[in-house]
Amino acid sequence: MDLVGACVAFVYVSERGSFTLGAAAARIPQPVASRRIGALERHLGGRLFDRSTRRATLTPFGRDMLPSARRLVALAEAMEHDAERARLAPLRLAVPDVCGTRELALLGAAALHQDVRLDLHPAPPRAREDLLRTRQVRASLAAVPADEAAWRVRLGLASVAEHHSAAVHLETLRVGRGDSEVRRRVWIQPEDDVPHIRDRVRRLGESVGLQPAQIAVASAFTTAAAHVLDSADLLLCSAAQAAELGLHWRPAGGIDPVRGYAVAAGEGEDAERIERDLAEGLAACLGADRGEEALR
């Protein structure tokens, strides 16, 4: 028996004093209201209405049962309201702040087609970790090594000057002892200030004789870009970022740095849904391919 449905019919009929009017108020046909109330009477073991009169008059048993029925109906309505609010609650997701506004907007639109309302929080890697740790977001795109990534972005070196070789080698930045030439630098943006990228670039620079200061970490992407646009310095970035800045991009010789991303979430269900339903939109935001496709 549909106990909630039967109690709804019972409450409305009792309030209206009529099976016909009560059924209309409950938005069900009158015969359905009668059947539900009859089933409720059999379930409870007593008559709820005195059917000897033209009005739907409560019996003493019915009057005793009415408060409980009202509480059950109110609880069911509250539960439906809570469920609707939960369905409409946005999924707060921390994303890299290198993602473009248009791409993020398209991701949000695509999510709506999957019945997901996204609340996006662009931030650099460490800030994304903090947002998830403090539960300010439900999920985050974490920066991870390439072999752990669901999405991957190849990185290379970009500069104002056009490169005539297939790759840019860091040893070309080396300056001889006593040389007065300004030392060119490689700028690392905050998105790549993570051990599996930053430390590899620094180790390579050290191995080819660069000074420590020639591998510089910028406080913001725009800061790194400004230095590169105003000098002969190099920017570690994706090909898409280089194109946006009008820079010439080549792979980095002797190293193949890759941004890797995976979904980190407080609930496994959130991570699964993001990777399943939003994979293509996230790949477009990151300028990435899924998994092994990025390295082919």
From TrEMBL:
<dbReference type="InterPro" id="IPR036388">
    <property type="entry name" value="WH-like_DNA-bd_sf"/>
</dbReference>
<keyword id="KW-0805">Transcription regulation</keyword>
<keyword id="KW-0804">Transcription</keyword>
<keyword id="KW-0238">DNA-binding</keyword>
<dbReference type="InterPro" id="IPR036390">
    <property type="entry name" value="WH_DNA-bd_sf"/>
</dbReference>
<protein>
    <submittedName>
        <fullName>LysR family transcriptional regulator</fullName>
    </submittedName>
</protein>
<feature type="domain" description="HTH lysR-type">
    <location>
        <begin position="1"/>
        <end position="59"/>
    </location>
</feature>
<comment type="similarity">
    <text>Belongs to the LysR transcriptional regulatory family.</text>
</comment>
<dbReference type="InterPro" id="IPR000847">
    <property type="entry name" value="LysR_HTH_N"/>
</dbReference>
<dbReference type="Pfam" id="PF00126">
    <property type="entry name" value="HTH_1"/>
</dbReference>
